[in-house]
Amino acid sequence: MRHDEHNVTSIGNAAQLALAKLERGGALSDEDWDSLPERAPGPTITERAAPRVDALVAAGWPKRYVVDASAVVADWPLITRCERWHVSGYAKSILILAGGVGSGKSTAATWWGVSRGPRGTSYLTAERFAALSRYEVDDRSRWERVGGLVLDDVGVEYLDGKGAALGALEALVERFYADVKPLLITTNLTRDGFVERVGGDGSRIVSRLRGAGSWFGTQDKDHRRSG
Ligand SMILES: Nc1ncnc2c1ncn2[C@@H]1O[C@H](COP(=O)(O)OP(=O)(O)OP(=O)(O)O)[C@@H](O)[C@H]1O
Ligand SMILES: [Mg+2]
After folding, report:
1. Do residue 22 and residue 133 come from a single domain?
2. Does residue 69 line the site of ligand 1, with CB under 6 A?
């Protein structure tokens, strides 16, 4: 028996289904990934994609969004908006993607970050950033130095009464504004809700967004499917 034949017979049913899904360009679930052997038989897409997925996950990108982003429908409005933003050279350096639950914001933001963003583009949830802002100023300022940033889900984070979380967000926005670095924010909030959330019309954040920001709202419904 040849070596590769042996490998083929040794991978399970679940792994074969997962591989077939990958070959069709479909997104894999966590279970699919887990079912795959360390070395897939033959030079499959898996072999080429897996080390990159691992590296992105190690760099802080959420595995689900990385996998989803590898199989995006390229002409979805959120994706084409990110592409246009990139092609414009980030003329407006802050882009806000707004839309309902499951409309594809995190996927589009991750697609941009891993395939278009400048070197060192990183991913952070607003919730994590707000938590850091309360206790760890050094760790927080690290995020101001990255080349590009996805700040996911602004509006769900806890805002402390002393204003530390909002102050940290203001410092972050100022850094990206001043350095003309791309900052991609996602939110479930409406435009008015967002403005109110970040301090209101006359606030330092809203003023910077007016100068360097672009708002893109999608009406898409929840694309998450069961199974
Ligand atoms: N461009 C795309 N092509 C194909 N599928 C997509 C695309 N964008 C998103 N999806 C699918 O839609 C679902 C929801 O996407 P995502 O998690 O990005 O939504 P979201 O807007 O971030 O939601 P939430 O507001 O809950 O955070 C996922 O299952 C994802 O695979
Ligand atoms: Mg999301």
Report:
1. no
2. no
Expressed as residue numbers, the domain containing 153 is 77-217
**pLDDT of amino acid 34:** 75
- Largest Cα separation within the chain, whole Å, is 74
Q: Is residue 179, in this structure, part of any structural domain at all? A: yes
Residues 205, 196: contact at Cβ < 8 Å? no
Which ligand number lies closest to the CA of residue 188? 1
Determine the Cα–Cα distance for residues 22 and 46; give it in Å rounded to an integer: 7
Q: Is the CB of 187 under 6 A from ligand 1?
A: no
Residues 46 and 83 in one domain: no
User: Which atom of ligand 1 is found nearest the CA of 97?
Assistant: 21
Q: Does any domain span residue 127? A: yes
Q: Is the pTM of this model over 0.70?
A: yes
- Has residue 227 been placed in a domain? no
With cut-offs at 50, 70 and 90, classify the pLDDT of residue 11.
low
DSSP 8-state secondary structure symbol assigned to residue 91 = S
Q: How far apart are CA 211 and CA 142, in angstroms?
A: 24
> Which tokens is 44 given?
């499959």
User: Which residue reads 């707000």 in tokens?
Assistant: 130
Count of beta carbons in the 10 Å neighbourhood of residue 21: 15
Q: What is the domain count for the chain?
A: 2
